[in-house]
Amino acid sequence: MSTMVIDGKPATARSGKTVEIRDPATGELVDSVPQAGVDETRQAIDAAHTAFRAWADMLPAKRAQILMKGAALARQHLDEVASLLTREQGKPLRDSKIEAERFVENIEFYASLSASGAIRGKHVQLSVPGAFGLVVRRPLGAIIPWNFPLTLLANKIAPALAVGNTVVAKPASTTPLSSIRLVELMNEGGLPPGVLNVVVGPGAVVGQELIKNPKVRKIGFTGETQTGKQVMAEAASDLKHVTLELGGSDPAIVCDDADLEQASKAIAIGRFFNAGQACLAVKRVYVFESVADQLMEKLTARAKKLKVAPGSDASSQMGPMHTAGGRETIEAQLKDAVDRGARVLVGGKRLQGEPFDRGFFFEPTIITDVPLEARVWREETFGPLLPIARVKDLDEALERANDSEFGLGSSIFTRDLKKAQVGIDRLDAGYTWVNTIQVAYDELPFGGTKHSGFGKEHGVEVLDFYTEQKSAVVAGV
Questions:
Q1: I need a labelling partner for 429 at 20 to 30 A (CA). Which of 66, 72, 368, 420 fits?
Q2: Does the annotation count 245 as an active-site position?
């Protein structure tokens, strides 16, 4: 049985309760983990609090050296971690390997920033003689990423640790195994006890303690919008720092001068990667009328070619959905659209027979002629379902793209630089891709607007959200 990690050591639950982790492709038991209660959560927070001062005071170059050593050890175990991720989450093994490697790359990126001196304050000339001002950055304290999978975990812990914070991580209870293993490896790599901890348990117990405990200064959350609102409301009573990366319904606009082959490839990957289960994913398409039929043809062909299979199958390009409930939601959203007159171009059903009957498989699905009031335009579609609408011009495309409570990512496909710039300027989203696949880069800040959250991850900008600025006036020296 896997264990939690508290104060650098394996930890079990005093209650003896455990959480079963099952493979969404087969329903088979993968492993079980201890289910933390309030006591174990407080132990982890206390450990992080105790470790904070020494870790924060450590020279940045020394912190970077330790993080690099942990990342190197994790890199040696990528295949093991990827196998765990596929078995607990369901995604194809090739995608799990990419994700495990991204965890390591994230740690290395922010460790390098720390070592290079990129994390710095300011010297300020004051308006009085004999004195000068300083603006210094100080780490916040205990940081809590409450999310999954590995890349989302790394988005939080990499910058947090690099600037001197200590961390309690709470992965989702259905996918804790790969996160636990990476935390173990980072600790084995030389992190001082208490710097990086991981606990597993229900949000109503563990999550509440993490949010309300006065020793916690910062909450980093990735998840659905409604839960994010609850986290923010509860954190407000103690005025905690909060970063929220929430739901999305990312629009893609395809203009009449676009490279349709490139557009169809990017959209298909953006929608069907990870079986469509990503906050950052193409979820709505608006295509100019004159090229709509051609684009739909190309997208339909790509969807038909996708090899859907258990993630452990080396040829799998799309695995099962993660939960039965997630699949039922997608089916309900599809039924709503079809009942209102939408037309299914491809997919729309559960896959049947072996090896599909035991898992939560659903066909890559594309629909069109979808009325404006349909749920797929208004809600986040967290699965392999893509609605496509015809539009007359860029103004209509932008109006419809922005007619959403979400504002995470967006895309535009055009050979016209002026159209591309209009899209960048007018799309209500934290990120816009032009003629390319949706990939979040470490070098650029990432975060949403509207109901997709606030705060930034990635880039040097993320460091502003894991430190606080302090002003100092120095005189008489």
A1: 368
A2: yes
Q: Which residues pair with 251 in a beta bridge?
A: 284
The span from the CA of 41 to the CA of 114, in Å, is 29
Which SS3 state, helix, strand or coil, does residue 284 take?
A: strand
What's 192's DSSP letter?
P
Annotated catalytic residue within 88, 209, 279, 457: 279
| C-alpha of 139 from chain center | 23
Distances 160 to 63, 151, 204, 279, 444 between C-alpha atoms, Å: 11, 14, 25, 22, 17
CA gap 91, 320 in Å, rounded: 7
pLDDT attached to residue 374:
98
pLDDT given for residue 135 in this prediction: 85
Strands of the 385-391 sheet, one edge to the other: 343-346, 365-368, 385-391, 282-288, 250-254, 409-413, 431-434
According to DSSP, the residues that pair with 250 across neighbouring strands are 282
| C-alpha span between 236 and 248 (Å, rounded) | 23
CA angle 339, 344, 349 (to 5 degrees): 90
Strand partners, 409: 431
Q: What is the pLDDT of residue 149?
A: 58
pLDDT score at 145: 39
Which parts of the chain have pLDDT scores under 70?
Answer: 141-149
Of residues 99, 108, 209, 245, which has the active-site annotation?
A: 245
Strands 166-169 and 196-198: parallel
pLDDT for the residue numbered 476 = 86
pLDDT at 340: 98
Q: CB of 261 within 8 A of CB of 307?
A: no
pLDDT on residue 143: 55
pLDDT tens track for 366-385: 999 999 999 999 999 999 99
Size of the chain in residues: 477
Contact 264, 472 (CB under 8 A): no
Give the Cβ contact number of residue 200 at 10 Å.
27
Q: What is the pLDDT of residue 132?
A: 87
Distance CA 22, CA 147 (A): 18
pLDDT given at position 1: 86
Count Cβ atoms within 10 A of the Cβ of residue 328 and give its class: 0-12 exposed, 13-18 middle, 19 or more buried.
middle
Pull the structure tokens for residue 448.
């949403």
Are 64 and 112 within 8 A, CB to CB?
yes
Contact status, residue 413 vs residue 263, Cβ threshold 8 Å: yes
SS3 category, 315: coil
The DSSP output letter for 84 is: H
Q: Is 255 a catalytic residue?
A: no
Tokens at 274, concatenated: 């990870």
Q: What is the pLDDT of residue 142?
A: 57
Looking at residue 370, its pLDDT comes to 98
pLDDT confidence of residue 255: 98
